[in-house]
Every structure is written in structure tokens, then in C-alpha cells.
Amino acid sequence: MPEASFLAWQKQFSTEDDCLKYLQKMKWPNGFICPSCGNDHHYEIANRHLYECTQCRKQTSVTAGTLFHGSKITLIKWFWAIYFLGSDKGSISALRLSKLIEVNWRTARLILKKLRRAMGHRDSLYQLSGTIELDDALVGGRQKGKRGRGAAGKKNVLIACESKEKKAGFIAMEVVDSICHFSVNEFVKKHLKQGQKVRSDALPALNIIDQTQNYEARVTPSYLADEWLPWVHIAIGNLKTFLLGTFHGVSGKYLQEYLDEFCYRFNRRFIEKQIPNRLLNLAIVHAPVKSS
Fold it and tell me: Half-sphere exposure (CA, 13 Å, Cβ side) for 28?
């Protein structure tokens, strides 16, 4: 997949028609196919960008069934939002995006919400395997105050990271109401393949991992924690830097969205320059996301 430079993106998607043609090519590479009956003949209603099947008469648009479905935002603004989000390794705030593509804050926020949701769905298709480090962290909260478990305004997050000896593999992160047997078990079932080698600290709530995994817990002093769980601690540190650098702290309401984006970026850090193109193609194949 080609890398996306600012000039190349600007040249490729400089008009609404450019975006429509690209979307049509990616959605129907071999020509129009009716989503209702599978017929490949149609009439084009050009002024409304609609295609009417000659057989069942169903009308469909090129954006139907994509992340752009039902959106009143022009495709060129969508495509540029995807570029700005995908190309900035530190992410982008809704306020900055609103200025760059000339929309209001709520519109920019909605675009980012849908894209981050798609990122999370994409990575949820992959389950971690091999040697996996698992830990929890308290994240979020805009106000200073109590530290540690029970800190006001902070959310519990479970983090799993594949250990590939000299580097980290894929990661998964999820906000949970509390660190307990139920939340840990649900997280492990969702994000880890069965029978993997899992390491963690000796938090009692994590003992349930032993039911489905080859689990090893070790009581570790803080000064040795980075030796037993090095990659998951690096991931947690990078996450907090990511959140503070762009969003200056986050509330629990949006935290999972930011975790989804962080994981998507982390899991593609070796192909960083391909992210805008990958994100655009993801938006084309992803089902619509509700605005609410």
C-alpha cells in the first residue's frame, strides 16, 4: 500500500468529484453491483449521485454502507479529515480539525468519533497470541487529586501487550468499570487466544486468567516491574504521553475512543506513513456508525 504524502493526497483528492470517483472505484472495482439483488446494470442519477438498478429499481448511493453513509459533510472534508488524523502520530483534537476543514466543533467531533470507532472495530478482529504481558492502569481525570486505586475522575483500563523479546507486538486496551474477575475474564476472552503464555503481577482479580491461559503471576517490587512486564509498562507510559500531548487529559466519556486510536496507531507503528490510506479504505468498507 503506497505511503501518503501531503502533496500526493492534495493532488489526488482536490475536488468532490475526485473523492466520488475513488470511492466508486474502491466500492465497485468491477463495476456497479446492486446491493439488493446483485444485478450489474444501472441508471445513473448524476445530479443526486444515485444509481438505480435496472432490475429491482432500488436506488443506492456510492456512500451507502460506508462510514460516510447519511453524512451531510462533503466527501472532500471527510477525506481530508482522514488524512489529518492518520498522518499526525500525536493525533488531532476536534478543535484543531474543525479549523483545518472549516466545520464546527461538533461536526469535527462526530467525524473523529466515527473514525476512532472504526479503528477499534478493526483491531478487535485480531486476538493476541504468544507471550503476553497483562496489567491494569488508572487513566484520565482532568483534576489533580488522590492517586492510586479509587482516584477521583480516573478510569480503570486493562492492557495486554504481546512480548516479542526485543520489541512489543500488538496491544489491546479496554476501559472497565472495575478490575474484578468478571471484567478480566471478559477482556481475556475478547482479546486473547486461548492457551497463551500470560504474565502479570499478582493482583488477585487477575487469577481468573489461569482458567483459559498458561498464566504466571509474580509479586514484583516497583523497581523490578519493568523487568517482569517491560512492554506493557512502556505502552502505558506512551498512552499517557499521547493523551496529555494532544488532549491535555481526558474524561471517562471519551476514553475508549482514544484508547482505540492509540492501539490502532501502535499496532501500525512500523507502517506509520501508510495509515491515512489504510484508514480511508477502512472507512469505505466499514458499516455506518450512528451519530448518537
Answer: 20
